[in-house]
Amino acid sequence: MPFSLPACETLMLTQRGSRLDVVLNRPESRNAINARMAAEFSDLLDWLAQTDAIRLVVLRGAGGHFCAGGDIKERRTMGETPPEDGGDPILARNARAGRGFLKFQNLPQTTIAAVEGSAFGGGLGYACMADITIVTKGARMGMPETRLGIAPAQIAPFVVKRVGLARARQLALTASRFGGQEAYDYGIAQYLCEDRDLDKTLEDVAAQVMACAPKASAATKEILLAVGTMPDDELATFAATRFAALSRGPEGREGQTAFAQKRAPNWVDAEEGEPQ
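Given the sequence above, the corresponding structure tokens read:
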């Protein structure tokens, strides 16, 4: 069903059924994240967290680049302004960025990052936060913050989760740049392709995601993200609760019936009661 998407200036949003393509759209700065983009993306994530109309979110950048990280020019201007009595705007901005990253990680939708060109700082962070990341061999990635006299404060936890502490230390404390092959080898990306094959690879992976049951996918993501955040016995109960609800729900019944009948499942949207 058609629905109204949030209005954005720095993001291009394209709805394709229950898939939403989100394009970071500041190509003149290699899609560096400024305050407006961060605010618009945060509002979009709030909207996505509350809607069942979208089940797949694809994140990519305009102009052949994914995301060059934070807007250094804008941030430099803030750094030259002393903190006010009401608080430090740099601290507040960085904390908002961290909360925004958590929103993206915890979306109920499956997320795919299609990475090409530059992916530094926050761009690398988004590549590590997405459920599925596709990277081209020609991509250039890294954590340059320490060479800029700052720290990768908010992306560091996500990089550690993705590649492990030892590799994250090396990447952050050398600020070294690396390509798509290394990103794949490090575990940042699950798919590696030639630059010219990014669109095809993306569509192949998206088709696989869309063949899965939407509510089952959301519950599975919730269980996976809960690993390490609660005691094992609590996690076992949490997972069992989700499993039982799915098994008795329309998706579980349809999926298991389709398997027994040797046919493709016809997923049903719980709200609309129509095939999805």
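The first strand starts at residue 11 and ends at 16. Try to locate this feature in the token string yourself.
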